[in-house]
Write a structure and sequence with these properties.
The chain is of the alpha/beta class. The protein contains six helices and five strands.
């Protein structure tokens, strides 16, 4: 049994893992899975945070500061928060990269998969149901349906 498992594992190469983070405690709950797989396969980890593009809601009149300035500030705040996550929780993963972008979360995740040569995606779900799911949709669902790579989706609310 052990030899068979070694043979199967030898054929799987996971060099880059993408882990989209929403910078909430939900992401922290998933980190043990990310770190465990990264260590097991000696993989690098790409942390991605997508700041929602506020312009998708239309050009709102915001007198001061401008919407573009607000968007830039949101991106800078996300970069600082991402650095805190890295400093506090990722000492065991020396091989990681941080990306912060603005746009639609599902679209940006799929773009990073292609541009960074990602082998595995680990993504959290939020378990939205009913009207909330209809209105907000599911980033994880869109990504799972369209990802060209394996996806490990984890509901942080179901973890012990």
């Amino acid at each position: 049994m052990e030899k068979e498992r070694e043979r199967v594992e030898a054929t799987i190469k996971i060099e880059k893992i993408l882990f989209p983070v929403d910078l909430t405690e939900n992401s922290s709950k998933l980190l043990p899975y990310v770190l465990s797989l990264s260590e097991k396969y000696d993989s690098s980890v790409v942390l991605l945070h997508v700041v929602q593009d506020l312009n998708k809601w239309g050009k709102l009149y915001v007198p001061h500061p401008s919407m573009d300035k607000f968007q830039k500030e949101a991106i800078e705040a996300a970069k600082k928060a991402m650095q805190i996550v890295c400093d506090n929780q990722l000492q065991r993963c020396p091989n990681f990269q941080k990306i912060v972008v603005s746009g639609d979360a599902a679209d940006e995740i799929l773009k990073v998969i292609a541009s960074e040569g990602i082998d595995l995606l680990i993504i959290g779900t939020h378990g939205r149901k009913g009207l909330e799911h209809v209105i907000f949709g599911s980033v994880a669902e869109k990504v799972v349906k369209n990802a060209p790579i394996p996806v490990l989706s984890i509901n942080p609310y179901k973890l012990k």
